[in-house]
Design a protein that fits this description.
The chain is of the alpha/beta class. 34% of the residues lie in helices and 18% in strands. The strands form 6 sheets. The protein has an 8-stranded mixed beta sheet with strand order 5-4-8-1-10-14-2-15, with helices on both faces. It has a 4-stranded antiparallel beta sheet with strand order 17-18-19-20, covered by helices on one side.
Length: 518
């Protein structure tokens, strides 16, 4: 071996040893770095950067709940949920009809700005550039899923489909259909044979919870939550839309109908006297077949409605129990509400589309860990349009600048605060070519309503003395000062429901078409 070759071999050997030494040091450093980061990764996996949201909504539910003081209601799960956070005692929808209400809630805009004043429409037809509540969460990295009814559905015929959904709002959609839709429809009693969703109809099912659509929804929610628990570093917005107690009032006979003996169900009396001082526009939602019901049928309808509420309550309990069991509750905001209220014979009315308390008032429960006190009650009037800015603030989500509600976060922290001090609900009357609006303002004490700016009548109810709204004081000379004050406040509130540009939306080709709101 010559000298030059030996030097070359020696040099290669030395370089090899040096390289191995350097690699060993690199591996040691990487191992140290990995061991240092393990606790950080573990923390990141358990604690997402934003809180989760579990958004639960019932369909056509009034405040027939134990936590709202109803003496008959068997709703233990919602009562326990109310005890975990804040119950809003005076929460109101923007429009007492499924489609307009749900679009308003999920866009954070009043119907005059969302453009939806009827069912079977979606806001992409009128304000396509607007970002919905779940879409905002989805765009900012959250997992957004819809189970069941969030936007409008034709119930019961659309159960099992997407209904009038907004695909941009969700990453995942699930649409189960149970025996209430697939098997039992021929057995359902209806005041109008062959119709189920728009009129009173009911059925005591022999099948248990697991076979019904809302039972399947609860199972789907458990399945989704299990997967969310496996990836806790990604926040979720999970919306579960139950179909009960919407007509047809279908629920398992055992045990739910048994909770409410038919002969103990209430029947509203004194309707004729009550209606004497009510404007015709206020009663326009009544239906002939409902006026002709016997007291026996009225009791059966009330029984079935209560039974459907208790059945829905049980499914809510399953979903919240899964949240707790999977260790997700400490970082999850829970919202429970309904799309609007519901009449059970008050003022001679059934179902919805009125501006009375029974139709406009909704249950609203909110639990925000680290924010809400337990078993608290907020008395200030609030609106569905307030949910979007509230959840955005709680979760650090950037929201559109044109939202029209107030954030409820101060009220969640201190439920005694006065908040905005009023809530506004509207509804339409008449044919489209002669359509007019009714607006109702709810303050802590008063409900004041104007139909077509008063041309079709006014209503004034003092809730301190008359919580059932039986005495219309609008014609009382002694209330003129109150009426003038509330009328000015109502009209000022109405101006805030239109797009910020100030341009009034108009009908075009049979479709409500406001200026696009960006």
């Amino acid at each position: 071996m010559n000298r030059d070759h030996w030097k070359s071999e020696t040099h290669l050997h030395m370089n090899s040893n040096s390289l191995q030494t350097r690699l060993k040091k690199v591996r040691t450093s990487m191992l140290f770095l990995l061991l240092t980061l393990v606790p950080w990764f573990a923390t990141a996996e358990v604690t997402p950067s934003k809180p989760n949201v579990l958004f639960l909504i019932a369909d056509d539910l009034n405040t027939f709940l134990g936590c709202y003081g109803d003496p008959r209601a068997q709703t233990p799960n919602l009562d326990r949920l109310a005890a975990r956070g804040v119950r809003f005692d005076r929460a109101y929808c923007a429009f007492p009809l499924c489609g307009p209400s749900r679009n308003s809630m999920l866009t954070g805009l009043y119907p005059n700005s969302s453009g939806i004043l009827a069912n079977a429409q979606i806001f992409r037809q009128t304000i396509p550039a607007h970002t919905s509540l779940p879409q905002a969460f989805r765009q900012q990295g959250c997992f957004a899923a819809r189970l069941g009814k969030l936007y409008h559905y034709d119930v019961p015929n659309s159960i099992g489909t997407d209904g009038h959904d907004d695909p941009a709002s969700w990453e995942l959609e699930m649409n189960p259909a149970g025996v209430d839709r697939l098997e039992e429809q021929p057995h359902i009693f209806s005041l109008t044979p062959g119709q189920f969703g728009a009129t009173l109809s009911w059925y005591a099912s022999p099948k248990s919870d697991a076979y019904h659509t809302d039972g399947l929804l609860a199972s789907d929610a458990e399945w989704v939550l299990e997967r969310c628990a496996q990836q806790k570093d990604r926040p979720f917005f999970l919306a579960v839309g139950f179909f009960r107690p919407h007509t047809p009032y279908v629920a398992p006979k055992v045990p739910y109908f048994g909770f409410y003996p038919e002969d103990q169900m209430p029947v509203v009396t004194g309707v004729e006297e009550d209606q004497a001082d009510i404007p015709e526009a206020a009663l326009a939602s009544r239906k002939k077949e409902q006026d002709q019901m016997s007291d026996a049928l009225r009791r059966q309808a009330v029984q079935a409605y209560y039974a459907s509420i208790s059945f829905m309550d049980a499914q809510v309990g399953r979903v919240v129990a899964a949240l707790d069991r999977l260790g997700l509750a400490d970082n999850t905001i829970i919202v429970f509400t309904s799309d609007h209220g519901y009449h059970m014979g008050e003022h001679g009315l059934w179902q919805k589309r009125s501006l009375f308390e029974e139709s406009t008032r909704v249950p609203l429960l909110m639990v925000a860990p680290g924010v809400t006190p337990k078993a608290a009650v907020a008395a200030s009037p609030v609106s569905h349009v307030d949910l979007y800015p509230t959840l955005a603030e709680l979760c650090g989500i950037e929201a559109p600048t044109n939202l029209q509600g107030q954030s409820l976060v101060p009220l969640l922290r201190d439920p005694s605060l006065p908040g905005r001090g009023w809530a506004l609900t509207q509804v339409t009357r008449g044919a489209r070519e002669k359509q007019f609006s009714g607006y109702s303002l709810r303050t802590p004490r008063w409900r004041y309503t104007e139909w077509d700016e008063g041309r079709e009548g006014r209503e004034l109810y003092d809730h301190d003395a008359d919580p059932r709204e039986l005495a219309n004081l609008a014609g009382s000379p002694g209330q003129q000062e109150v009426i003038e004050e509330l009328s000015a406040k109502l009209r000022a509130a109405v101006t805030t429901t239109f797009p910020a540009s100030g341009q009034t939306p108009k009908f075009k080709d049979g479709l409500w078409a406001p200026q696009l709101v960006k």
